Amino acid sequence: xxxxxxxxxxxxxxxxxxxxxxxxxxxxxxxxxxxxxxxxxxxxxxxxxxxxxxxxxxxxxxxxxxxxxxxxxxxxxxxxxxxxxxxxxxxxxxxxxxxxxxxxxxxxxxxxxxxxxxxxxxxxxxxxxxxxxxxxxxxxxxxxxxxxxxxxxxxxxxxxxxxxxxxxxxxxxxxxxxxxxxxxxxxxxxxxxxxxxxxxxxxxxxxxxxxxxxxxxxxxxxxxxxxxxxxxxxxxxxxxxxxxxxxxxxxxxxxxxxxxxxxxxxxxxxxxxxxxxxxxxxxxxxxxxxxxxxxxxxxxxxxxxxxxxxxxxxxxxxxxxxxxxxxxxxxxxxxxxxxxxxxxxxxxxxxxxxxxxxxxxxxxxxxxxxxxxxxxxxxxxxxxxxxxxxxxxxxxxxxxxxxxxxxxxxxx
Amino acid sequence: xxxxxxxxxxxxxxxxxxxxxxxxxxxxxxxxxxxxxxxxxxxxxxxxxxxxxxxxxxxxxxxxxxxxxxxxxxxxxxxxxxxxxxxxxxxxxxxxxxxxxxxxxxxxxxxxxxxxxxxxxxxxxxxxxxxxxxxxxxxxxxxxxxxxxxxxxxxxxxxxxxxxxxxxxxxxxxxxxxxxxxxxxxxxxxxxxxxxxxxxxxxxxxxxxxxxxxxxxxxxxxxxxxxxxxxxxxxxxxxxxxx
Lengths: 412, 243
Prior knowledge:
The complex is a heterodimer. Chain A is α/β, with parallel strands linked by helices. Chain A is built from 14 helices and 17 strands. Chain A has a 9-stranded mixed beta sheet, sandwiched between helices. Chain A has a 6-stranded mixed beta sheet with strand order 12-13-17-14-15-16, with helices on both faces. Chain A starts with 9 loop residues before the first helix and ends with a helix. Chain B has a single domain (6-242), classed as 3-Layer(aba) Sandwich (Rossmann fold). Chain B: It holds the Pfam family GATase_3. Chain B: Pathway: Cell wall biogenesis; peptidoglycan biosynthesis.
């Protein structure tokens, strides 16, 4: 066992065993992978288990509003070049899920851990990471989540003085502000299409000026940090000025940004960009996202978009008209029960596509599309929508629980 | 830009556009366009002066700190008060509604002066946040069908003698004062806690603003199919949730 010099205490071992037993029961009962319940049981028996499990690992934490699951996967793939990796690859990103994932990786040398934005500061305290990657922050589930700037403030306070190397997106003012309290930051120009959560200076509240790719506050002088890594089209520019081509099976600008950040993280762990990027190419789909599934004679590409920033990035990667688009929106607990965010999404970008609408909140979407002046068809379910679309490929965009519903129906 | 077009001013989207507030502007624009009423939309950022010659002003919801910043800048600018003095129509939601009043509690826990355009005063509700679908009856003088919306706020707002409640709720907290009132209005100034956005769920509110601005009693009909379907669904949902 590489690096596992301090064996777990009897109590920690008991906690891991009990957690695994609970997960097995949960799986047998058909209630999902059991990773969350297992972690919950284990953490109850040994509240410091997370720190103990991470003790022998070189850990990187990944947090953001969007792209954290994919980036976690890309980094895990890259670090695999240096040694065995344990990761919460399925997106169970709160302390219980993380504990459960780590409990399964006693042989690993590296821990690549996705963390829910609200828990980042706490998990960073518990596991003493070597690196922390911060991608973006934007509005998401406002009926139950903290306000976006409050999240940035929690990051800023929780990470101040961390010994971790922080890899942060210089193009997101909220992230830049959160990270600028950390002693060691590697700034990445990873881009951020969505700008509507950062028009006021996170530091002083002044109006941010945003000429081109730059941004600065005219009042207090807080400005975009100078990046050492940069995404430039299909390339990532390393600190030595070398441009490395990013070739991925995953589509879209946002995933190139995730890869650029992942390359910067890999470098912290001694994995060179060339090797890191080559390994990232292997990633085809992440927890069902981006997967192409054959269903009723059509090819459905499954795309997850949970909030306005996510929808914006998704619109930029789908095939152009006349590719049919199927949209599904729910508003259950995990989605946020307020559908107002639909009005922050510029659906006129879908002009020219045949549009099919399903999901619990298809009527909210119908009014939204009507007001956008688009043609669309409201359907009872996936089958009706797919049958209504012309044969060939369909771009399917859904929010969180709608995406899970879809995966169940189309057998992905 | 035509001189005769209706001027729709969206106040401070950089600070007060957190809950899909652009939707209200989009619905007003769309329903005007369907009636061939030319509309010029003017989005005013908080470092720009508020034009005083607008016909309809929309001011939306936001987080606590942006709300204080917006109130400070609007007071300093004075344009919205002058516009109301000229008879402009103002429709405000949530944080914007509180700003129009005489006072609210800011993010620092201190009383913050509002614009005094609407006779309401807001304090912070000490209990849990008001979150969920709401439904009620709009003041009958306005001749509108029932109100449906989604509230998400921590404010309690008392309507003073210079204004009237906008609606009486059957479900939801509204002004949070326990008397069932929701929002407030006086002449051409309106305030509500209803997101949704409120015009998407109550398009006849958008029509009311258009009629006030154009000084007409009726507008040509438009296709209400999807609005009606959504309204029916949300009213039923609010009714069931509280049953």
